[in-house]
């Protein structure tokens, strides 16, 4: 399968590239800096050097699936929403690709009252420095839920999303998952396995699911 990965040199992107290549997929890193990609991913991974906002319908149409692992600084967090809109608009009316969006945990529900996890995040000391990211990832999901004419799926990690090897994958829908150690976390390796499983055997269409470590 032809898979393009936006943000391939980030933590999640690197894990996705490694998992996709391991499974034998025709994998392309979509990055702004080809030299950095060569250093980070190795020279065997094909690269499309392009700012994600400059991708055309033809660029995207060369793939069966495009995974958006885009990351940015808190003061530019609105770009999560802007890029989702741009990707949807550019594939609308085309036969493909399928779009996979890595979202945040803030849009998941937690507690006995089922409140959004972003409400807890807002009360974390120092949250003002980074809260724009989960808030805009929530807006990104809200936007995607209005899209009915493009094949998309969103994937949210658990509360802590950090580099690490894959564990046994646990899937959920809209509730924050808790691992066997009593905390809520997803490694980038676990996320990569779950996304590649979904790409190979689609089980979710125009919806969001969540992934956690066992």
Describe the structure.
By secondary structure, the protein is an alpha/beta fold. It has a single domain (2-213), classed as NAD(P)-binding Rossmann-like Domain (Rossmann fold, 3-Layer(aba) Sandwich), CATH 3.40.50.720. Helix content is 33%, strand content 22%. The protein is built from seven helices and twelve strands. The protein has helices at residues 11-22, 34-41, 57-61, 79-91, 117-122, 132-144, 188-200; strands at 2-6, 26-31, 47-49, 65-68, 98-102, 109-110, 115-116, 152-156, 160-162, 169-172, 185-187, 208-213. The strands form three sheets. The chain has an eight-stranded mixed sheet, sandwiched between helices. Strands 6-7 form a two-stranded antiparallel ribbon. Helix 1 (11-22) packs across helix 7 and helix 4 (79-91) packs parallel to helix 6. The radius of gyration is 16 Å and the shape is globular. The two termini are 28 Å apart. The mean pLDDT is 97. It comes from Marinactinospora thermotolerans DSM 45154. InterPro entries: NAD(P)-bd_dom (IPR016040), NAD(P)-bd_dom_sf (IPR036291), Polyketide_Oxido-like (IPR051606). GO terms for molecular function: oxidoreductase activity, acting on the CH-NH group of donors, NAD or NADP as acceptor. Residues 7-198 form the NAD(P)-binding domain. This is NAD(P)-binding domain-containing protein.
């Amino acid at each position: 399968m032809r898979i393009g990965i936006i943000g391939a040199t980030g933590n999640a992107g690197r894990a996705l590239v490694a998992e996709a290549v391991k499974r034998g997929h025709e994998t392309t890193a979509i990055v702004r800096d080809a030299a950095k990609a060569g250093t980070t991913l190795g020279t065997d991974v094909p690269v499309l050097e392009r700012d994600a906002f400059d991708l055309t319908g033809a660029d995207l149409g060369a793939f069966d699936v495009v995974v958006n692992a885009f990351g940015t600084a808190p003061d530019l967090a609105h770009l999560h929403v802007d890029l989702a809109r741009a990707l949807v608009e550019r594939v609308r009316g085309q036969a493909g690709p399928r779009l996979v969006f890595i979202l945040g945990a803030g849009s998941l529900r937690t507690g006995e009252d089922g409140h959004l996890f972003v409400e807890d995040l807002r009360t974390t000391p120092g949250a003002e420095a980074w809260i724009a990211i989960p808030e805009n990832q929530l807006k990104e999901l809200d936007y995607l839920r209005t899209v009915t004419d493009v094949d998309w799926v969103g994937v949210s990690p658990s509360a802590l999303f950090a580099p690490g090897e894959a564990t046994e994958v646990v899937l959920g829908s809209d509730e924050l998952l808790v691992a066997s150690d009593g905390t809520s976390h997803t490694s980038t390796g676990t996320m990569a396995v779950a996304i590649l499983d979904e790409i190979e055997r689609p089980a979710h269409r125009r919806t969001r699911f969540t992934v956690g470590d066992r």
